[in-house]
Each structure stands twice: as structure tokens, then as C-alpha cells.
From TrEMBL, chain A:
Disordered, as annotated region: 463-484
Pfam family, one: AMP-binding
Location of the AMP-dependent synthetase/ligase domain: 158-353
Designated name of the protein: AMP-binding protein
TrEMBL record, chain B:
UniProt protein name: Uncharacterized protein
Upper taxonomic lineage: Bacteria, Bacillati, Actinomycetota, Actinomycetes, Kineosporiales
Domain of life, source organism: Bacteria
Length: 484, 187
């Protein structure tokens, strides 16, 4: 960044400003060995300036449930989509439950505007009108079932690629279930991922300057160490510390996104002593070239995990063949045309997700804004040619790559809901926004500070509107605008 | 699918013609119900049923008056011609006394045209019937339009949803929620 200071609009990232709980509430199940791992990680000589503290909040009931989930996945019992393209049995039950418990849908029933005959609650998913991120932003409470206790709700945020920043109500158990899912997916790649007392179980790796970083342990994974790190130099006390800490942790799994994955490959090229069992990439499309590079650099499986914070993981591409197979969760994927009708099998359309994993946010027909063709792989539903969020970075005035996640943080903090931020082949930057949406002038000033470049303002035309939500696009015509 | 019942007008007229005594809280409702069911050919109320009615639908003054009016209704010639089954009559007594009376005072079943229509439609629904000349969809729409129970239930739902939205906003704003929990993937 051209200016090392934190933009005032990003005050929520003030170091440790959001960390308020005692450790016993962060990790209710913490034992001595886990506590020692945590202390060693926090106080490691090469540790970054941690900006946050995060536990897993799991209790013993959660552990039992997660064990049961792991057993169910191992047995293949009931979590895979049914063969032949049929709708999973749980979908009909979810349609009924959501219409009885989620305020948005109860309202539709009361007012005779629901999708069933005569405006009543529908019996089948096909009669449910799709929703988009803008609907969640406008009325989050409308989607949260009234009968689910809120005592353990956690605030998650999603920047996403379409629509406004969104608060997502999360549940600790649903978050921890992602580790169970990853273990299952890796097992499918021939990788046994077991807790180690010597190595970190997982490192969540970023590259942007403004990021929550924390040391943690995973109660549902042998209390193995876990860390969220950013490779951006501003996060570290000394330039060599990032590599030194990664080598000391030698994480079994690195969960990351395309830009930091490219930097991790740079570290491997530079001889870093790292031995991951697998790499997991998410948040943005994984370019094929980068995937090959990572596979060759580490010689391990690279999972390209597709999903949204609102839905959790949806599909995974484990072999680089470009087809994302729907993961064994209670997630049902359809591909719809702009009118909301299902396209014929194999025809490109918008990916629309129905999911029942997060008790605080069951979703019926949630538009992702991403497109793909629905196909079947080994009898299971899969997304071919998935076009989601491209991994993009702009070039700052000082020659530094600035990931779109960083510009997105700034723009949404200024209240913008839709935009197109573009850098042309000559390096000129223009921010196009919608009239009356957020504070475009202040956003421009923040961008200029971040990039060290002049930023022109423009108006977003109708073509910049996505289905149901205004698009949030960042594009760059300069060479190196995508990770490789 | 319901079966076709008597004309709505016949039932509302019957309610409008209810004797003033029917609204007298001193009437022994259980005895009136017992008389009605036996008049329709049913057995006298046994002990268990008496206890269930007394502690349930007939446990309030409104419920008892509602039961008396329901008995008056099911003894009408139009009703008996369409549905003479005493079990259906018992269902009507329970529905009107237990579900309608708490949300719509029985006096309105007699004195108010809208109340008469609602009571008559509630009785038909309880017996699995629709008014003569209406199909199921029309009957359902008109019931939705007149039902105090639905309105009360909708108001209760709305109140619950308002409370819940406030509770969610408070819970998410709490610092313990904002600290969040570790996230393992980048979806």
C-alpha cells in the first residue's frame, strides 16, 4: 500500500479491537496440551502482530455431533445427493419448515403471495421464488427461523462478488463441520489427515494487508494448532518471519485463496521447508495455471472449493478437470435461467443453492450470481465450467499488487452496494458506482490513498446490474492482474 | 376435498334466530351438548369425554356459550339434512368452543352478520364440509378472509417476528458474537 496507515473507515480491523472473550469461552473444551500449543503459537518468536483472537466455541455436544457427522460421511449415509438428478428428500421438508418458521416466508403465506396454489405455502422447491444477496441484506431477520435459539449465534461477514456486504449469522458447529468435510474430501483424494502434536493442523492463509490474523486450536481435531495468517509484509515484525513461522508450523493443510496461494508457491520456489498434505483454495476462481503450479510445487492434491459464506461449501474440484462436484452436505444445486426456471441439463445458467446446514440461515433457492452447467459425475451433481469470482488485483502507484478483496473492504465500508472498479492497460483507474449508493467521493479518496493513484469516478450503467443484486466487479487489463 | 354442506344462509339464519337463553352464562353447557348429540343419535357423553370437554373447550365462559350455540346450530334442519353424524357434531362443538370462542365472542356469532358468517364457516370446516354452491378454493379463500383465528394468529406471528428481529440484531451486535469463531475455509 502507498500509505501504511489503516484507513479510518476500516476501524473494525483495529488490532485486537474485536477480541473480547476470555480463552475459556473461546475454547470451552481446551485441555493442557491444547493450551500449551496455543501459548507457543501466540508467543512464537516469528509470530506476526496478531490482530484478533478466535476460538471455536465448541462444547461437548458439538463434538458428539461432529463425530456423528464424520461417521455418516464415512459411511456415505444420506448426505450425498440422490442418483439420477432427483431432489434430495430433505428439500421438501426444508421448504415446509422454512415457510413455517422463517419470517420472510411466513409473511408470504399470510399475505397469500407464497409460491403454492392460491398463494399458500408451496409443497415443492420449484414453486419457491429464488432470493438473492440483496434480499438477505435488506431483511436478514426474515431468513432466520424464529424457533432456533440465538444464544450461540456468531457474526460472520461476507464481501462476496455480488451485492452489498452482508452479515451472516453463523453457528459454531456449522463452522467446525467444515473441518470434518475437508477431512472427508481429502480422504477421497487418498490423503489421511490426522491430528499431529508436532505440526499445525491447518493454516488459513491470506495476502491482503487488512486482515484478521489469529492463533487458535481445533477442539474437534485433537486440539491441533491452527493459525490465520496474511503474507502481507505489513503484518510481520521482520521480513523473514512469515516464512520462518510457516516452516515452524509446517501446516498439514493450507486453506487459502488464489493470490496467497501464488505467494506460497513463490516461497516453495525459494526453498521453503513446507510439507502440506493438501492445499485448499476458495473465495475466487482458481486459475488452471496456478493450480498446476501449486500441484507441481508441493506434489499434493489441490482442492478448489466453491461456495459462499452464506451457504458454506457447495462443490469441489479435486482433480483440476474443471468440474466441481457438489459436496456431501445438505446442499442442493440448481441451474436456473434469468426468469427463475430450470435450464435444460448441460445448459449454462445461474447457480442457485438450497442449503440446510447452518441452523441460523437455511436458504431456499439462493442465487449465487455465478454461472455453470449442471452435469453429473459418477452419478453425482456437478458444476461444469463454473464462472464465479475471478481473482483480480490492481497495480498500485508503487508497483504493489492490491487484491480486489482489499478494495472491496474499502468500498463496502463506504456503503457502496454495487460498483465496477477498473484499471486499464495504461494503469488508469476508474470507479463506477450507482447514483445515490453510498459515499462515492469518500470511497474514491480512500482508494486513492490505498493505491497511490488518481481514481476517476463514473456511473454504473444498467449492464452492471447482476440478477437480483448490483454487481461488484473489479477488473484489470494490466499484465499480472490475475495470480499465476 | 370437503363434501358439500348446507347453504351458508341457512346456517347464519339459524344463528341469528338463536334463543336469548343460549347466551345466558347460567346454562349448563355440558347438558345442552349431551342433549344435542343424543338427539342426533349418538350415545350419551361418557365420563372421560365429559372431563375432556369440561377441562378443555368448555373450561371458559366463552367456551361454554360457544358450545351451546354450536349445539343449536347442529340441530338445525339444514344441518341435519346434510350431516346427521353425531361425531361431526361433536367436532363442531369442540372447534367452535375451543378455537373460535377465545378469539370471537359468541355474542357476535348471533348479533353480528360477519360473526355469524365466521361461526357458520368454522362449523362447516370442523365437519369437513363446504357451503353449498362453493368449491373448495372459494370456501378456503372466504374462510381466510373472515377468520378471526387466522387474524389473531397472524398478529401473534407478526409480534413474534418483530421481537425476534430485535433479538437477532442485539445478539449479532454483542461483542461476544462479533469476536466470531475461527473459519477454516475461504468460501
Amino acid at each position: 500500500m502507498s500509505d501504511a496507515g489503516l484507513d479510518p473507515v476500516l476501524a473494525e480491523y483495529e488490532p485486537m479491537g474485536a477480541a473480547v472473550l476470555p480463552d475459556e469461552e473461546r475454547w470451552p473444551l481446551l485441555v493442557a496440551a491444547g493450551a500449551e500449543r496455543l501459548r507457543a503459537l501466540r508467543e512464537h518468536p516469528a509470530a506476526p502482530r496478531w490482530t484478533h483472537a478466535c476460538g471455536d466455541r465448541l462444547d461437548s455436544g458439538d463434538l458428539d455431533a461432529l463425530d456423528a457427522l464424520a461417521a455418516a460421511l464415512a459411511a456415505g449415509s444420506g448426505r450425498d445427493a440422490p442418483p439420477g438428478g432427483a431432489e434430495p428428500a430433505w428439500v421438501g421438508e426444508l421448504v415446509a419448515r422454512v415457510h413455517a418458521t422463517a419470517p420472510r416466508y411466513r409473511r408470504l403465506v399470510r399475505e397469500g403471495r407464497a409460491g403454492g396454489p392460491g398463494g399458500r405455502a408451496p409443497d415443492r422447491l420449484a414453486d419457491v421464488a429464488p432470493v438473492a444477496r440483496a434480499d438477505l441484506v435488506a431483511d436478514l431477520a426474515g431468513f432466520v427461523p424464529v424457533d432456533v435459539p440465538l444464544a450461540r449465534v456468531l457474526e460472520g461477514t461476507s464481501s462476496g462478488s455480488t451485492g452489498a456486504a452482508l452479515v451472516v449469522p453463523l453457528h459454531p458447529r456449522a463452522l467446525a463441520a467444515e473441518v470434518v468435510l475437508l477431512r472427508h474430501l481429502l480422504e477421497g483424494c487418498g490423503v489421511r489427515w490426522e491430528p499431529s502434536s508436532e505440526r499445525a493442523g491447518l493454516v488459513s492463509l491470506l495476502a491482503q494487508p487488512t486482515a484478521f490474523t489469529y492463533a487458535s486450536v481445533m477442539s474437534a481435531f485433537g486440539q491441533a494448532a491452527m493459525a490465520r495468517l496474511t503474507l502481507h509484509p505489513s503484518a510481520w515484525r521482520r521480513p523473514q518471519d512469515a516464512r520462518a513461522l510457516l516452516e515452524a508450523l509446517d501446516p498439514q493443510v493450507v486453506s487459502t485463496t488464489p493470490w496467497p496461494l501464488a505467494q506460497l508457491c513463490d516461497l516453495a520456489d525459494a526453498g521453503a521447508d513446507l510439507h502440506p498434505l493438501a492445499l485448499v483454495s476458495g473465495a475466487a476462481q482458481l486459475p488452471a495455471g496456478l493450480r498446476r503450479r501449486a500441484t507441481e510445487a508441493f506434489g499434493v492434491p489441490v482442492l478448489d472449493l466453491y461456495g459462499l459464506r452464506e451457504t458454506g461449501p457447495v462443490a469441489v474440484c479435486a482433480d483440476g478437470a474443471g468440474v466441481h462436484v457438489v459436496v456431501p452436505r445438505r446442499v442442493h444445486v440448481e441451474v436456473l435461467d434469468p426468469s427463475g426456471a430450470q435450464v435444460a441439463p448441460g445448459v449454462r445458467g445461474e447457480v442457485v443453492v438450497t442449503v440446510d446446514e447452518n441452523p441460523h440461515l437455511p436458504l431456499l433457492r439462493y442465487r449465487t450470481g455465478d454461472t455453470a452447467r449442471l452435469v453429473r459425475v459418477g452419478g453425482r451433481p456437478a458444476l461444469a465450467g463454473l464462472q464465479g469470482r475471478p481473482a483480480v488485483a490492481l497495480l498500485s502507484g508503487s508497483g504493489e499488487r492490491v487484491e480486489s478483496v482489499t478494495t472491496t473492504q474499502l468500498l463496502q465500508a463506504h456503503g457502496l452496494r454495487g460498483w465496477h472498479l477498473h484499471q486499464d492497460a495504461a494503469g488508469a483507474v476508474v470507479l463506477r458506482t450507482r447514483d445515490g449508493d453510498g459515499d462515492a467521493a469518500a470511497a474514491r479518496a480512500s482508494l486513492q490513498r490505498l493505491l497511490g493513484l488518481p481514481v476517476a469516478l463514473g456511473t454504473l450503467d444498467a449492464a452492471g446490474q447482476g440478477p437480483g443484486s448490483p454487481a461488484r466487479r473489479t477488473t484489470c487489463d494490466l499484465p499480472g492482474g490475475a495470480p499465476a | 376435498m370437503s363434501r358439500e354442506g348446507p347453504a351458508l344462509a341457512a346456517l347464519t339464519a339459524r344463528l341469528a334466530a338463536a334463543p336469548r337463553d343460549a347466551l345466558d352464562p347460567g346454562v349448563v353447557a355440558l347438558a345442552v351438548v349431551d342433549d344435542a348429540l343424543t338427539a342426533l343419535g349418538g350415545p350419551p357423553l361418557d365420563g372421560a369425554l365429559r372431563r375432556r370437554l369440561a377441562s378443555g373447550p368448555l373450561g371458559s365462559a366463552e367456551g361454554r356459550t360457544g358450545a351451546v350455540l354450536a349445539s343449536w346450530l347442529v340441530l338445525s334442519p339444514a344441518w341435519r339434512a346434510a350431516q346427521p353424524d353425531p361425531r361431526a357434531a361433536l367436532a363442531v362443538v369442540e372447534a367452535l368452543a375451543g378455537s373460535l370462542a377465545p378469539v370471537l365472542p359468541p355474542a357476535q356469532w348471533v348479533g353480528d352478520p360477519a360473526g355469524r358468517e365466521e361461526a357458520a364457516r368454522a362449523a362447516l370446516r370442523a365437519a369437513g364440509m363446504r357451503p353449498a354452491g362453493e368449491d373448495d378454493a372459494v370456501a378456503e379463500d372466504r374462510w381466510t378472509a373472515v377468520s378471526s383465528a387466522l387474524r389473531a394468529s397472524a398478529m401473534a406471528e407478526v409480534a413474534q417476528e418483530v421481537r425476534r428481529a430485535q433479538e437477532l440484531a442485539r445478539a449479532l451486535a454483542e461483542r461476544r458474537a462479533r469476536e466470531a469463531a475461527a473459519q477454516y475455509t475461504h468460501v
